[in-house]
Amino acid sequence: MQENSLKTKKRMLIELVVVIILLVSLIIRIGYIQLIDGNRLKTMALDQQSLERNVGAKRGTIYDATGKNVLAVSSFVESVTVNPKNIKKEDKEKVAKSLSEILDLEYDEVLKKVNKNTSIEIIKKRIEKEEADKIRKFLLENNITSGINIDEDSKRYYPYSTLASQVIGFCGSDNQGLNGIEAKYDDILKGTDGSINKLVDGKGYNLNDEKEKYVESKDGNDLILTIDLTVQSIIEKYLEEACIDNKCTDGGNIIVMNPKTGDILGMAGYPSYDLNEPFEINNEELKIMWNDISQEEKNKYLNEMWRNKAISDTYEPGSTFKLVTASAALEENITDTDNEGEFNCSGGIEVAGVRIRCWRYYRPHGKESLREALMNSCNPVFIGLGQKIGVEKYYDYLTKFGLLRKTGIDLPGEANSIFLNENKVGPVELATISFGQRFEVTPLQMITMVSTIANKGEYIYPRLVKEIINQDTGEKTEIEIKKGEKVISEETSKKILDMMNSVVSEGTGKNAKVEGYEIGGKTGTSEDGVNTNKYVTSFIGVASTDDPEVAILITLYNPTGEGGHQGGGVAAPVAGKIFSEILPYLEIKNSNEKIEEIEMPNITGKTVNDAKKILKKYDLKIKEDTFSGDEIVKKQIPEEGIKIEKGKEIVIEVK
Q1: Domain that holds residue 616
Q2: What is the pLDDT of residues 232-274, one digit of tens each?
Q3: Are residue 105 and residue 85 in the same domain, yes or no?
Q4: What SS3 state is found at 342?
Q5: Among residues 160, 193, 224, which one ends one of the domains?
Q6: Are 220 and 338 within one domain?
Q7: Any idea of the CA torsion for 619, 620, 626, 632, to the nearest 10 degrees?
Q8: Rg (CA), the chain
Q9: Which of 88, 171, 444, 469 is the most exposed place for a label (fewest CB within 10 A)?
Q10: Which of the residues are catalytic?
Q11: Which of 224, 243, 276 represents a domain boundary (last residue)?
């Protein structure tokens, strides 16, 4: 009996210990949940009870350089989502059938989403108002009040379709920038999405007493590009014409740049593509076989179509690069422009046991000055100059001209040049570099090089965006014009420009000549790779050579037409056509135009209002006119009787 009592007490003690351990464990667990894991569990509970639908922000508008022409804009559209648990079972098939018909979707796919055991499913984003109104009508007629959401969203449109497509880029399904300016400035353009929130119970059903909470989206900022719609349209027109007429199998590109500011006025690639349909291939042959090729191949062809070759691809510049050699030789006082008979072309030159021929080896140029050598594009002369400059000094100029680094342009995907390391450059390698072969640069690096020459020898960085505008406040943030070091002196710059003028007026670039304008340029022809039997033909130029405001580079890949593949015969005429249209548009004066001058009238002692009336008769106006009309003019510049060109601005001081 005593033994049983002891056993009972022992069992009770064990049970008590177990209970105590369980209680302590429970207290510890509750403490852990409450004090340590409480925030996480609270967040999970809120997530389960919260249903959030996204409201897309409106992307900022992209304008051309004038600030008036819209290149990319977002318009408000609507998106359709469903809450499957809030759609009555008997309505599910009806809802799926209606949505699939109105939105042109597969019925089975829509039905699968409507039947899912989830809180929210996206049916279709960015639908047109007409489609949204049809859905609203269906819901009203069938007395369906919950489970289908039609929310505000935005859609990207490109009014000019293919214009500057490889520069502007496009957006993806989530309104994010995928290419070009759209990708580079995505954070600035995209804004902040809003949301629609509401509370649901554990099964995902609406809590009837809870209203939806709307968080407004914030629109993105606007951009003003340096691209000028008119200039861009002109260069695209002539690029397409040149590529078709000359059968350029690998397309081409053209860049127009203001050498004083670095502004890219136009950057065109051919073939282009439709920004509103960026996943539709632009090649007719590929369209036929598109459904039969793999996704990997499709991606390859699409990326090639989107690629901006002006910044992402390199090429051998050929004789256009002789401008670098000439600049270095003049700056180092190795030669001058017009030393008569200083050089002699015998059809070729021997370098380290290798004979390198002039392009006109069959009829040598004979005695030449530097100007004549540039006009004739004579290889041996520039090889000789390269030898005198030397590898170290030559590479110093390559660095200063920015040819060994990326320009840093505000576009994604910029490539760098391909040069031999300086310590691997021997006599033959230096010789080929000196006349533009056996290395590669990007078209953008080349246009920046010639713009540096045109900008009085000061390096100028290219830019594509000049202003950012806050949509809420209207505040403008200007992207600064960025200049680098002095590469060559202003004197050397003038000499190079003067020789480039001779190339167009009398040399290989004469097809770029435009009556009444001082055009300077240099032609180029090079092999596209080794033993490919393909060529790259180009023309690089400026206008006007006395005060350059426009630089241009035309690059055509593998012209196979009857016109051949020489830069002077294929690329230079394109430059002439473009210059003939954009120079008048940019109001660059034609020397054939008569300048009408008048004598400056007297406006001192007059009120500003009266002065304006007098000036208007002479097609003159006041510069920086911030005056009130009643102020009296104390001083005028120019003074009375001085000859002044009609249309000019005058400066006044008031009492």
Answers
A1: 597-654
A2: 999 999 999 999 999 999 999 999 999 999 999 999 999 999 9
A3: yes
A4: coil
A5: 224
A6: no
A7: -110
A8: 35
A9: 88
A10: 319
A11: 224
